[in-house]
């Protein structure tokens, strides 16, 4: 039997790595750009919000588009758009300009996960999807690990403009490999009949090719389980991504013009959490557990692992903080791998990308609003002379968000019953 599906995972992993490398650059350049453009924490939060607003719109728009035109062309459009935007950061001359280019970046980057999750649903049976999602999702952390090594070096040698230019150009290389290597498993010449039979071994009989309307999908409780899970937890990850470098710089005088070992440790832990988190629920499935029990048990364990981040205020050294943050980001990525997999567990393939888009939009809207609180809180305590107090409050909020999200998921999808989409959808939530 061929194993071409794992090459597809490789392409998804590289695209997700590039996706997060491009968005992470600005957080590492923040101290430099603050000096050049006289940014306050509130100014920076507005730039983050511009990205988040566009990202939210893009998520739901690409979710719908990709269910209509397919993963191959949809992914290509998304990567092309965000790569152009990443390069344009190099010519920004004002805070407003950065806001515009961040918004354009968000418009492209929102297509990554709807395309990737749909691709996983098309190429893998259910027992492998959480692991596969964890593998490609670990690219979010590889990008975050590479950035603290690459960006400070480029900044020191060539300046901040080249840092944006270099990272943005990488996406264009990926486009070539995606176009020449991707097709659906049913049409792919490198997929053997045995591998195709394995891929489609648990296919639903009612899985069609036409996209489902959003208004029809939001009538289902299962859709809201995913939406609320993303709304409550995605803002935490955005906070980790955009403010951790600044947190280490302000609280521990970390020099972001040099490779940052603490950040490398934190995001490496997130990589391990992503892959391991996807493996655990798959292991439970192999033990004979139901999908409902397997996914929710794993997700509850991960939610509990994030709670200790509230103890950061009592840490006395940077490495104690690194340990707490490493556990939190690893648990978040493990949580995220399983949360995305819930969609393909409960919905047919022709609705997966649309549901991911709806949930991603909700998560991005949460990420849009959260920076308002973050910027205001940090500026208040920065003015008062102790910005670390602001971070302490934020870590408490982050530590409690996942248990609340798990409870919402359980209430809205208590049995995680798969959706059967009839020709005429019911008028009430089923």
TrEMBL record:
One of its GO terms (molecular function) is hexuronate transmembrane transporter activity. It is found in: Membrane. The chain crosses the membrane at residues 47-66, 73-92, 158-180, 223-244, 264-285, 297-315, 355-378, 390-413. The keyword Transmembrane helix applies. Its main location: membrane. InterPro entries: MFS, MFS_dom, MFS_Na/Anion_cotransporter, MFS_trans_sf. Keywords: Membrane, Transmembrane, Transmembrane helix. This is MFS transporter. The lineage of its organism: Bacteria, Pseudomonadati, Bacteroidota, Cytophagia, Cytophagales.
């Amino acid at each position: 039997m061929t194993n071409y599906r794992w090459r597809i995972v490789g392409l998804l992993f590289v695209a997700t790595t590039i996706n997060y490398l491009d968005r992470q650059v600005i957080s590492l350049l923040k101290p430099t750009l603050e000096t050049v453009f006289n940014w306050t924490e509130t100014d920076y939060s507005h730039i983050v919000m511009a990205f988040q607003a566009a990202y939210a719109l893009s998520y739901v728009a690409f979710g719908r588009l990709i269910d209509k035109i397919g993963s191959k062309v949809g992914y290509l459009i998304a990567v092309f758009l965000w790569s152009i935007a990443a390069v344009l950061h190099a010519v920004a001359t004002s805070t407003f300009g950065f806001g515009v280019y961040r918004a354009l970046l968000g418009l492209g980057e929102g297509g990554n996960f709807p395309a990737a999750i749909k691709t996983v649903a098309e190429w893998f049976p259910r027992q492998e999807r959480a692991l596969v999602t964890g593998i490609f999702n670990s690219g979010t952390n590889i990008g975050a690990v590479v950035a603290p090594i690459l960006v400070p070096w480029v900044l020191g040698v060539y300046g901040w403009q080249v840092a944006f230019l270099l990272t943005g150009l990488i996406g264009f290389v990926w486009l070539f490999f995606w176009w020449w290597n991707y097709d659906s498993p049913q049409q792919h010449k490198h997929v053997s009949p045995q591998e195709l039979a394995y891929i489609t071994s648990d296919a639903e009989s009612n899985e069609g090719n036409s996209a489902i309307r959003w208004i029809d999908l939001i009538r289902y409780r299962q859709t809201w389980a995913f939406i609320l899970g993303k709304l409550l937890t995605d803002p935490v990850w955005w906070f980790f991504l955009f403010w951790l470098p600044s947190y280490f710089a302000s609280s521990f005088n970390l020099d972001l013009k040099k490779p940052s070992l603490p950040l490398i440790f934190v995001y490496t832990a997130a990589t391990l959490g992503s892959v391991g988190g996807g493996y655990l629920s798959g292991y439970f499935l192999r033990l004979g557990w139901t999908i409902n029990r397997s996914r929710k048990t794993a997700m509850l364990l991960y939610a509990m692992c994030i709670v200790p981040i509230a103890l950061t205020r009592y840490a006395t050294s940077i490495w104690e903080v690194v340990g707490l943050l490493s556990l939190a980001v690893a648990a978040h990525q493990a949580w995220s791998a399983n949360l995305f997999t819930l969609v393909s567990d409960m919905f047919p393939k022709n609705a997966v990308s649309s549901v991911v888009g709806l949930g991603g939009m909700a998560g991005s809207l949460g990420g849009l609003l959260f920076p308002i609180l973050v910027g205001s809180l940090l500026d208040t305590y920065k003015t008062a002379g102790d910005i670390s107090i602001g971070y302490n409050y934020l870590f408490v909020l982050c530590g409690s968000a996942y248990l609340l999200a798990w409870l919402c998921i359980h209430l809205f999808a208590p049995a995680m019953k798969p959706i059967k989409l009839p020709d005429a959808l019911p008028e009430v939530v089923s």
